[in-house]
Amino acid sequence: MELIALRNLVLALALYSATLAVADPAVPTTAEPAAPPSRIEELETHIAGMQDKLRESAGARKAADQARMEAERRLATSTQTLERLRQELARSEDARAALGEALRTQSQAHLDASAALDEARTDAHRLDQLLRRLPPALGGTLGIDEARAAAATSYRVLVETLQQPARGAGRKIEVAGARTQLQLDQALLAVLTDARGLYRVEENDSLALISRRVYGTEGRWQRLFAGNRHLLDDPDRLTPGMTLILP
Predict the structure, then answer these.
(1) CA 45, CA 41: separation in Å to the nearest integer?
(2) Is 105 exposed, middle or buried (0-12, 13-18, 19+ CB in 10 A)?
(3) Which sequence ranges form a coiled-coil region, renumbered to this chain (predicted)?
(4) Where are the beta strands (DSSP E) in the chain?
(5) What does the pLDDT look like over 139-189, one tens digit per residue?
(6) Could you give the CA distance from residue 87 to residue 79 in angstroms, rounded to a whole number?
């Protein structure tokens, strides 16, 4: 619209100048003639060139506006993509932290399970050792030969403890412990051999005297001797505090 108005203004001025030159008689004949048509055409060509340049400028501005809008659209898209990536990164960090915590929990559970397994193995070993020290009647696996060997070992420990120099209360405790262990081993052997019971030897005891107390006759002392051969080498040598099996 601006280009058309400019063109019309130029044409109007040219026509007005020509009219003044013809109508005013006071104008001397020597005045310059009105602008020839070629001048008008030159102006029109110039105006057309300006119009083309303005159209080109408008097109360039439109293209620039479109490019700016496209850049803004891409920027908005990039911003959205960046925000999405940030959110995904945050979720990945949370997942990594959760995975690390789960791994630590699993590692601790593995350690706890290993400790529990070791403890169970230790308990199983202790149970196995205990079962080996119990007769089948009590749910164990102890055999007669093993029971006799254990009792013989306990008796040797008792004799060695009694032979040690006196050391006060400590020695009494050791002797009492040795006597108790021998009594326990003899009790297990008594269960395996279906013995009548046990007898703890006192001072001045003999197999004949024990036979008379237990069986009512001294003649069964040989039976006592045979039932305790794993402890006794001589029927006349008894150790006070030792425990005998009563067959």
Answers:
(1) 6
(2) exposed
(3) 68-102
(4) 197-200, 243-246
(5) 888 999 999 999 999 999 999 999 988 777 788 899 999 999 999 999 999
(6) 12
Give the tens place of pLDDT for each residue, 26-43.
Answer: 445 455 555 567 878 887
Residue 245 token pair: 């099996």
Residue pair 17/35 in contact by the 8 Å Cβ criterion: yes
Q: How many CB atoms lie within 10 A of CB 142?
A: 22
- CB of 201 closer than 8 Å to CB of 231: no
Alpha carbon distance, N-terminus to C-terminus of the chain: 140
Burial call 235-245: b when 16+ CB within 10 Å, e when fewer: beebbebbbbb
- Residue 189, token pair as written in the block: 């052997």
User: Looking at the DSSP assignment, which residues form a beta bridge with residue 244?
Assistant: 199
Amino acid at position 221, single letter: W
Residue found under tokens 């052997």:
189
Mention every residue, 6+ apart, whose C-beta is less than 8 A from residue 7: 44, 47
CB atoms within 10 A of CB 209: 15
